[in-house]
Amino acid sequence: MKSVKLIVGLAAGNGFGIGLAGSGMNEPQKVLGLLDVYGDWDATVLIALATALILVMLMFYLAQYLSEPVFAAEFEPVEKQDLDKRLVIGALLFGIGWGLVGLCPGPALSSIFYFEPNIFIFIVMMVAGMFLAGKVAK
Amino acid sequence: MESGFGLAMVAGLVLGGSATFLFWGIGRMASISEIVWQAVSNKQSWQLTGEAWQGYFILGLIMGPLISHYAFDIALPATNESGPLIMAVGGLLVGFGTRLSGGCTISHVVCGLGRLSMRSLVATLCFVGAGMVTVFVTRHLLQMT
Question: For the segment B91-138, what is each residue's pLDDT rounded down to a tens digit?
Fold first, then answer.
């Protein structure tokens, strides 16, 4: 039963990797195109994210009719709803990095097999940033 | 560019389907930045036995584009134009920011908004706004690209 969770994790991650490759999000120029509302705007990534969101809204809504997940004891509880400085400052800093390069964590990792040396610089610094955030703000 | 829209919709369904699979399957949110954090900060995430599935998620994530390319004939992306310094600064900001705000694009836009979370709505407005301003500055004011 325990190893089923690992298989679900592997399969879900694989699905994300396959989906990201077709979504335009693995292509920094398309992400920067989404953010470039003053210039040559590109709707590709928006269409992928909007389609995913509509499906997920429906499926998460329907999940309330399941008493528990298929392979686990309980659903992850809904996160806290209060807003705080960490959320806003973190999201703003993330947005600056996203706008600089055009990569977020999922696409960065799923770009490993494109074998561009610079992607490894991004990933190493991203992980360093995560550790740094834990040190700076508790 | 038009031909990419149909593919983007299919890709969106695959992404949404994967998030649904993880939630219906083991009750967890596909918050990729948080999964990455678990995978790098918790050694148990890579054990063959146990319940920590995050390392396996990352393995699957990395394999995904290979399958897309060889099985579904998805074109490889254009070469990334950012130099090493921009990649380093961008990576640091992305890691720091997603850890501080508890989520990345998929976490907040797909999973968070999919759960009607006010925190994810605020985070999404913040990082999309900051991203748009950054692109305006780099592309139009400084004309870096």
Answer: 999 999 999 999 999 999 999 999 999 999 999 999 999 999 999 999
CA separation, residue A104 to residues A1, A95, A130, B72, B112 (Å): 33, 9, 13, 23, 16
In a domain, B125, yes or no: yes
**Chain B neighbors of A44, CB-CB under 8 A:** 1, 4-5, 8
- Amino acid identity for residue B80 in this structure: N
Number of neighbours of residue A38 by Cβ within 10 angstroms: 11
Which domain, by its residues, includes A69? 2-136
Contact between A18 and B21 using a beta-carbon 8 Å cutoff = no
B129 occurs within a structural domain:
yes
- The rounded distance, in Å, linking the Cα atoms of B129 and B42 is 33
Range of the domain at B140: 81-145
pTM of the model as a whole: 0.94
Residue B99's closest CA among B38, B11, B24?
A: B38
pLDDT tens profile B63-104: 999 999 888 888 888 778 889 999 999 999 999 999 999 999
Tell which A residues from 46 to 65 touch B, by Cβ distance under 8 Å: 47-57, 59-60, 63
